[in-house]
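Q: For a teaching session next week I want to show students how multiple molecules come together into a single three-dimensional assembly. I've collected the sequence lines for a complex. Could you give me the predicted C-alpha cells for the whole thing so I can convert them for display?
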Amino acid sequence: MSELQIFQNPPRSPAAPPDVMEEFALLMSLALDDLLDAVEQQRFAALLDQYPELAEEWNEWCALDTALASQPRAIPTPGFVDRFEQRLATQEARQQQWVISLSVAATLVTMAVVLVTLVSTGAAAFSAQSVWIGEQVHTLTYTLVLADRWLSTLVNTALVLLERRRRASPGWPTRSWSWP
Amino acid sequence: MNEHEQTWVDAARQGDKQAFGLLVQAYERPIFNLTYRMLGSAEEAEDAAQETFLRAYSRLNQYDPAMKFSTWLFSIANHHCIDRLRKRRVTYISIDDNPVLENMESELPHPESQAVDMEQAQAMQGLVAQLDPDYRTPLVLRYWEELSYEEIATSLNMTVAAVKSRLFRARQQLMALYQKQQAATAPPSSGFKQAAAAERRATTKANVLHLRLGLSGL
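A: Of course. Below is the structure for the complete assembly, covering every listed component.
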C-alpha cells in the first residue's frame, strides 16, 4: 500500500462489539466514581488500547459527569419552613376534628345499636314467649286481686269485732267504722 | 451530620415541633432538590417535599437512630416521589418559566455565564427528567448529595451491587438521551455540548495517561 493510499484510507481499528461496549460502559461508570479495583483498571486500559474509539466514549462520559457534577442544587422558594409549620398545624387540626367526629359517630352508633338491640330483644321475647308472659300477667293480676280481697275481708272482720266491743261497753263513742 | 441533629430528633420525638422545624430547615434543600429532580415541577416538588417532612414527623417513632436522619428522609422522599410518578398517566415536564431554575440563576455571578449555565441546567434537567424513575434517585443522590454507594443503598433499601448497576444504567441512559438530543438538534448550541467538546479535547490524553500511570503504579 502506497503512502498516498495510507493517507487516504488510514487503517481502522476494529469496532468494539456490543458486549465489549456494555462491559466498558460498566467499567466507565465505576471509573467515574473511582471504584475500579486493580483487575478492572487493567481491563479498562486494555480495552482502551484494543479499541481506540472507546476513548471518545470515555471522554463523553467524563464530560457528562462533569456537567452533572457542576449542576447547582435546586432550592425551594423562601419560607419553606413556615409553610411546612402551617401545613402541619392544618393537618393536626384536621386530624383532631376527624377524631372528634369519629368519636361522636361511634357513640351515636353504639347508642343506636344498644337501643335497637333492646327493642328487638324485647319484641322477640314478647312474640316468642307471649303465652308465658300472658300467664305470668294473669297470675300476677289474680294474686293481686286475691290479696286485696283477703286484706279487705280481714280488715272488715277486725272492724266488726271492734264495733261489737264498742257497743258492749257504754263509755265508747257512737261513731261506726267501715273499710272503704 | 449536624452535631445538634440527634438532640433535635430526640426533642421532636418527644413532640417538640420547634425542634422538628430545625430539622426541616436543615434538610429542606436536599429534600427539595431530590423531589424536584424526580418530579421536574417546582410546585409538585414543593408539595412532595412538604409531604415528606409531614410523613417523617408522623413516623418519628419508627426512625432508627442507627441510620443517618438524612438517609431516612431520602428514603421517605424517594418512595413518595415514586408513588407520585406511578400515579401520573402522562409525564409532562416543562422546564420553561421554572422558578427553581430562576433561583439557580439568581445565585450565579455573571450575566453571560448565567445564560450559559441556565441553558445547561435546563438541558440537564430535561435529560434527567426523561430517565427511568428507578435510575433518577441514585443519580441525584450521587451527584447532588454526594452520597457513597453504601449510603445510597441504605436510602433506597437495596444492595450496593444494585446501586452500582442502577448508576451505570442511569449514566448509560443519560448518555443515550444526550446523543439522541444532539442528533435531533444539529447546530451545537448548548453549553453542555460546548463543554463536552472542550472537555473531550482537553482530557482525552489526560484520562488515558492517568489510567496508565495508575496501572504502572500497581
